[in-house]
Amino acid sequence: MLKLVKNIKMAIISTIKHEDAMVVDLTPLYLSYKGEWVALKDDEISVISHGNNVRKVLESAVNKGFENPILFKVPTSTISYIG
In whole angstroms, what is the distance from residue 83 CA to residue 79 CA? Predict the structure, then answer.
């Protein structure tokens, strides 16, 4: 049985200097997987598995050979932020 807590990499969004930032466009994820959990490869773009149940998404990714995928809950809507 998988221990969910040990296998999840959490993406922590923090304030970083602009020149150090790597920009990843998550629009394709948003358009394809609104409201779902996605398991991503380390490149933060390639989807391994997706679904509504985070445990099943993780198990599917692990069964495909990815021990520690990045798990991300895709929002159901977007809001503008200017800052």
Answer: 13
Q: What are the tens digits of pLDDT across the range 14-33?
A: 334 455 567 788 888 999 99
Q: What is the value of pTM for the model shown?
A: 0.69
For the chain, give the mean pLDDT: 80
Partners of 51 in the β-ladder: 37
Secondary structure of the chain: what % helix, strand, coil (to 5)? 30, 15, 55
What is the rounded distance in angstroms from the CA atom of residue 51 to the CA atom of residue 55?
9
Read off the tokens for 7: 């296998």
Enumerate residues 6+ apart whose C-beta is below 8 A from 64.
Answer: 48, 49
Please state, in angstroms and rounded to a whole number, the distance separating the CA atoms of residues 2 and 30.
Answer: 28
Nearest to 46 by CA among 32, 21, 63, 29: 29
Cα–Cα distance measured from residue 2 to residue 47, given in angstroms and rounded to the nearest whole number: 20
